[in-house]
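Support request, please re-run this one:
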Amino acid sequence: MVPLETTWRCGSERRTTDVHISSDPVSHVWRDMIGTDPSVHAVATGLSRVHRWLNRTIVPWTTIQHVYVCDVVATGFRASEAGKTPSPEVRMALLFHDVEDMLGADVPAPMKTQEQRWAEEDVRRWVYSQILRLPYPGEAVWGVVKGVDMMVRTAEAHTLMPPRMRQHFVVPEADVPDMLRVSDVILDVLALPISSAVEKYTELVRLLRQTPQIRAMEGRA
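Re-run finished. Output below.
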């Protein structure tokens, strides 16, 4: 077992000890959820069973579909506008930025407590360390992920949720041209069978792990 750091809240700050705990809670829950040999395919399967937006969408929409759309958007028109393709590290972070959902459920961002955010980060760190064997990304990478995620979440809410329900999730106003382009991607992914989304996700992670940047990072977790 690889122990997690012990954390607690002091005022508004997160405190971390260097005391190793003997029983890794993430490992324990993971065994219960997806078996004793967690893998990328097991992660993908788990994410395909988690419905986003508290299952309030007009059609079923899962976390595996959300993160796949994030990658398509980041490597599509967003890359064209920026004049460069996101790095393999950024794309990997996009694919795993909601991996914690499979251990519980998707909680819309406006409804999360700070403690929930810290717990989710602990899960992501564990996945990077124990499944991907990669160092945890820095703030610059997560900043890019946050921008893409916000664009996709906004388009999801305006595309897949009834208008009266949207207001309860504090969804921001959308940039109409961007929202329409992301909505087209959402509808394309929605047409895929869930099993195809799982296979595409698994294959995409496999290909990213073969890139020189990711290979150079392996084992440095």
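The domain at 39-217 is CATH 1.10.3210.10 (Hypothetical protein af1432). The chain has a mean pLDDT of 81.
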